[in-house]
Amino acid sequence: MDQKEKMRSALPMAALDEIPEPRPDAKNIVGLIKRRGRITGYQLSDGQTVSKAEGVALAESGEIRGVGIAHRGDTRYLKALPDSDEGNNLSSLPSVGQDRAR
């Protein structure tokens, strides 16, 4: 990786407040739950749906892999860890329903 690529990947990482260490059995986020175009929750690789806050708590405890925790104002949310694969960015995931999170 050249210096320019290192700088490009360092900037998104700096926007994260925390990068939790995933457990070996951690799940992936496979879909987004949206309401009026805004993410309100996540669908996990085991089919479970969780709210945005529950997703943050699960990530903090190592139960979700490939994400970091960021914030906007007082709201904490998950962001995909930056890598060279655009397809695994959360914004690239399909919407799986509206307000299905428990």
Which geometry do the CA atoms define?
Answer: globular
Secondary-structure content class: alpha+beta
Q: Sheet with the most strands? A: 4 strands, mixed
- Which stretches are low in confidence, meaning pLDDT under 50 for 5 or more residues running? none
Estimate the strand proportion. Answer: 25-35%
Number of helices: 2
Number of strands: 6
Terminal CA distance reads 42 Å
List SSEs in N-to-C order.
Answer: HEEEHEEE
Q: Name the average pLDDT.
A: 84
Strand neighbour order, sheet with most strands: 3-2-1-6
Query: What does the radius of gyration come to?
Result: 14 Å
* Portion in helices: 10-25%
Topology:
Blueprint: H1 3-14, E1 29-35, E2 38-44, E3 49-51, H2 52-60, E4 67-72, E5 75-80, E6 95-97
Parallel strand pairs: 1-6
Antiparallel strand pairs: 1-2, 2-3, 4-5
Report on this model:
It is a single chain. With 102 residues, this protein is of the alpha+beta class. It contains two helices and six strands. Strands 3-2-1-6 form a four-stranded mixed sheet. Strands 4-5 form a two-stranded antiparallel ribbon. A hairpin with a 2-residue loop joins strand 1 and strand 2. The chain is globular. 16% of the residues are buried.
Task: Describe what is shown at a glance.
The protein is an alpha+beta fold and 102 residues long. It contains two helices and six strands. The strands form two sheets. The chain has a four-stranded mixed beta sheet. A two-stranded antiparallel sheet has the order 4-5.
Short key terms for the protein model shown above:
102 residues, two-stranded antiparallel sheet, 2 helices, 6 strands, globular
